[in-house]
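Appendix B. Extra example for self-study. Work through it before the problem class; the solution is given directly after the inputs so you can check yourself.
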Amino acid sequence: MGSVIQSSLGTPNIISIAFFIVFITLTLGITYWAALRTRTTREYYAAGRSITGFQNGLALAGDYMSAASFLGIAGMVSTKGFDGLIYSVGWLVGWPIIMFLIAEPLRNLGKFTFADVLAYRLQQKPIRIAASIGALTTVIFYLIAQMVGAGTLVKLMFGMTFEYAVIGVGIVMIIYVLFGGMLATTWVQIIKAVLLLGGATVIVVLVLSKYGFSPVALFDAAAIKYGDAVLAPGTLITNPWDALSLGLALMFGTAGLPHILMRFYTVPDAKEARKSVFYATGFIGYFYILTSIIGFGAMVLVGREAILAIDKGGNMAAPLLAEAVGGTPFLGFIAAVAFATILAVVAGLTLAGASTLSHDLYVSVIRNGQASEADEVRVAKIATLFLGALAVLLGISFKGQNVAFMVGLAFAVAASGNFPALLLSITWGGFTTAGAVASILVGTVLAVVLIIISPTVWVEVLKNPVALFPLKNPALISMGAAFLVGYLVSLLTHEEDAARKFEEEKLRTYLGVGSE
Amino acid sequence: MHSENMRNLLNSKEFKSLVRQRLWMSISLTIAMLATYFGFIGVLAFNKEILVQKIGEHVTLGIPVGVGVILVAWLLTGIYVVWANNYYDNVVAGMKKKLGES
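Solution. Structure tokens for the complete assembly:
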């Protein structure tokens, strides 16, 4: 043990550059094709509602399967064993919730953003402003985590400077979103999802071929090399309250992520929206099973010592395994796929943020809903440039810092700020504007403040000895408070108009009558 | 749009029962998902010996159960899709037809 394997990781690799150039050329070609078909707001934000359920399932899965989850979960399984599998399961369970509670009413009631659903029966201005605060907070934290991850991963894989990597990702991503809108972003996402699922499948087949295609034989090999403990739960779940709170954030946060919710407007109707969640859940579940096998494969075939020697977080387990089973060319392919993944995810996030700035804030608040199509698209493009530049700046300024908590925070804000108001608005006629605004603000502010004083930031990032708030993820408190405040404030502020519209919108919610 | 037709439909027993059925379906499937996941987490937190049990030479019960939670999540979305495609959509289509005719 302790022998560090020779790896070409971190040096520019001709094959990965070749694959990468093919990917960039193909996606820029698609962007050009999409740009010719992107004029109206319907086309810019929602790909003209031309995406099928199956395609949207792949695109949703693409949005969710980030490079961080591919490399991070494989790394976690390779270094911690079964605990990595437990961790990955948590990321899937939010998908059925989206289908059961949100997808169809969202598609039937809204136009481009989830704030549309709230604004359908509540007062435009206050609700759009509040919903934008929730949406932008979620998107920006998610974006920072992705950008910093992008710089770090590209540096590890290609040996490129962090700043250049972040700027490069920023420029390509802005081109996709700026010119190709949702149509280009969706197809980039679909291609990347197919490449990622295909690449991961090939790694798994190559690994299992060494074990007579028996996963059990692979698990046995892992247990023989590192002890039976790698196949048993370890220290991931020690405090049940922490596990419950994180579980709630993952489960209900997924249903409050603006870039995920926005995808439901790209399909023609509620039936396709429903089908797309079924496909997405299948693809993501399959992906997590693959990632776990890749983790165990890396544990046995690469070895924990070699993985941890290259990166303390274990993030290079999957690329190292690809090299071990498929040689340098295959490493090149997987590295290019990981880079493509980063690009696609940040493009989706940027578009979601831009639609909030333009559709929710500029058109509905600043212009009182009076803006021409061309004007709205123009502002959405300016917002894209602004957010893209902001993402690059934030990515660079958070260089070298521990930003892993930001994804957890994004989920906590989504579960606390966005999800309760969305669910109450769809299901409860007594919900009022004041209740919704209070719920969104309390949920968002509480999630952010509590995570700052939690062990995750207060102790691990700010290096204080004791946390002021005990839970690592605040969702249990912040989501609970958002529901409670939304309910109580609505009881205190009767809103005749909102209650009447709730009755009227039922035909649209349940039958899709009048949906756009 | 015939607003009187819409009002009649909104107040009809048929429509109210459809809304109730969908709510029932949504809530029971959500509870099934919550119970599956938090059941899994609960066993891990309070009684993980169950999942440490060996079912093969080295493989623990935890591995198939973990993969099982992923499969259950997908299966539940499948149940909903089958119900909605075969039952819900038909009722909706019938109601829309009525709305258009009269």
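Self-check: Chain B touches chain A through 55 residues (CB under 8 Å). If your reasoning did not lead you there, revisit section 3.
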